Amino acid sequence: MSLPISVPLKFARQYKLQWETAQDAWVLLYPEGLIKLTGSAGEILKRIDGRSSVEDIVSNLQAAFPEADLQQDVIDFLEHAHDKGWITAD
Q: For position 80, which CATH number holds?
């Protein structure tokens, strides 16, 4: 399923993003456990706020990391997160 690029993203109801000091990483919490995220995954997911679209997130990350051409990698990851049910487009 293709993720719409101009629709705001939010976390699915059972998922919550949190910085975990013990893990020294961002984690995605859900009722059965947690998913430890890579640094780049955390950077992407921490920009999901229920108001920002894929376009907004890509733009924000590109401004934060101007030396990197990361548009396709961000889109690919967000589509993966959407396919896994971590995020929704409403």
A: 1.10.10.1150
